[in-house]
Amino acid sequence: MDKFKDECGVFGIFGHGEAANLAYLGLYALQHRGQESAGIASSDGHRLRMHRAMGYVADVFDEDALTKLKGEAAIGHVRYSTAGESRLQNAQPILIDCAHGQIALCHNGNLVNAGELRDDLVREGSIFQTTSDTEVVLHLYARSKAPSAEAAIIESISQVTGAFSLVMLTADKLIVARDPHGFRPLVLGRLGEAVIAASETCALDLIGATYVRDVEPGEVVVVSRHGMKSLHPFGQARLSHCIFEHVYFARPDSYVFGESVNEVRTAMGRQLARETAVPADVCVPVPDSGVCAAMGYAEEAGVPFRMGLIRNHYVGRTFIQPQQSIRHFGVKVKLNPVRSILEGQRVILIDDSIVRGTTSRKIVKMVRAAGAREVHMRISCPPTISPCFYGVDTPRRSELIAASHSLDEIRRYLQADSLEYLSLDGLLNAVGDRRSAYCTSCYTGQYPVEFPRDAASYLQLALKLDKPTEPVA
Global pTM? Predict the structure, then answer.
């Protein structure tokens, strides 16, 4: 599907006899955040063990693999590559042994100065085993002369800029850290005496843990047998929570940045209806990510909500299309229209976003082929005009249809009767009172963290203004 790609999910647990098994379940709940690879590292108090592979969580781990991950502490990761290639060497956790002892690290985010730091480290003799930005943190850690592991971690992450929600495991500690801007979500929970860290609260729900609080932006939490301590070693920075977590990434049953994802998305739909109402017979979501907004829209507009598109949940991550002659079946394999709902109707079609527009165009065509009399496309976020460099795999600006085409040009390309987006003010109103705490760079092109000396490699992607390869009809 033509969507921004999910980033990564992290999970950590300390002080439970079934640590690896619970980490497995936590990753299962976070599978939507990354489907390329999965991994778990565990500690028995003396040494770390790790298992990771390419694929879904359920495919990577079996009973034998989990049995070998002994100990009462574990961290885990599901990955979608936002920096570095999709290959086993880039799967996480990354485990090293150095003067500070063994450490395993899982990272959700993207370090915008990783290229600069990597060049400096290579010139000074470092040998990198991956193409992931995360490895930079471990090289800085290994070179640190700090007296303790936690001091070395703080020293190393003090040198990176950008987005990071980290869970790290040493032989006797779980260490959790979040960047000062708070780009990516990270929460703390409890399961009895065990302490848990996870990207989203849905991972706590699955294992029966209780949500305690968010890890604060710029906070480092150290968990050991002596308890939990909180450190704030970084200076304050402008809060820049990723608003796309609420638009698309997070599961609707999660709380991120202290807000219910379901309630925020429903509020987006209500606001969208206030701003873009149109006479219609039925309100239909593009499943699954458009469902909450469509329910809010239908409720506010007084239009019946119907599941006029059915998603096939058993399609794998990659649908093989071996011959050019059948490639047009790609969207149909994943979505199928319900003719009895659509035929002869004026349809409001709700989706969370439009990236390139190619899939939206196919869906509109599908709805028309099922007999819809009118198709009005409504998008529960503003036009996406800029890539993200803080942990989301996004296309180049030249591939974002809204970056170089007017609203009416996009409408004509989609072959919709009308097209409207939620306004930026409407989106910020939906997230509640803390609207200034969010990063909206994908809608504004205004980035809260400056790029370092290798900025050209970022700006070349961000500012290229040539037209999309597929012309507007």
Answer: 0.90
Where does residue 66 fall: left (phi above 0), alpha (psi -120 to 50 degrees), or beta otherwise? Answer: alpha
pLDDT tens-digit readout, 307-329:
999 998 776 544 344 444 444 56
Catalytic (active-site) positions: 8
Evaluate whether the domain defined by 264-313+328-433 bears CATH number 2.40.50.140. Answer: no
In terms of phi and psi (left: phi > 0; alpha: psi -120 to 50; beta: otherwise), the region of 439 is: beta
Q: How far apart are CA 50 and CA 65, in angstroms?
A: 9
**pLDDT at position 333:** 82
Q: CATH 3.40.50.2020 spans which residues of the chain?
A: 264-313+328-433
Residue % of the chain over a pLDDT of 70: 88
Torsion angles phi and psi, residue 190, rounded to 5 = -130, 140
Residue 406's Cβ-count burial label (10 Å; 0-12, 13-18, 19+) is exposed
In the chain, where does the domain assigned CATH 3.60.20.10 lie? Answer: 8-237
CATH superfamily for 8-237 is: Aminohydrolase, N-terminal nucleophile (Ntn) domain (3.60.20.10)
pLDDT of residue 453: 53
Residue type present at position 198: A
Mean pLDDT of 36-51: 97
Instruction: Single out the residue of 179, 244, 161 nearest to residue 451, CA to CA.
Output: 161
* Alpha-carbon span 250 to 121, nearest angstrom: 35
| pLDDT for the residue 450 | 78
Cβ-defined contacts of 188-195 (< 8 Å, 24+):
188/212, 188/213, 188/214, 188/215, 188/221, 191/13, 191/16, 191/22, 192/16, 193/15, 193/16, 194/13, 194/14, 194/15, 194/16, 194/19, 194/22, 195/13, 195/14, 195/15, 195/223, 195/228
pLDDT, one tens digit per residue, over 206-231 is: 999 999 999 999 999 999 999 999 99
Q: Provide the token pair at 55.
A: 């694929």
Does the pLDDT at position 154 exceed 90?
yes
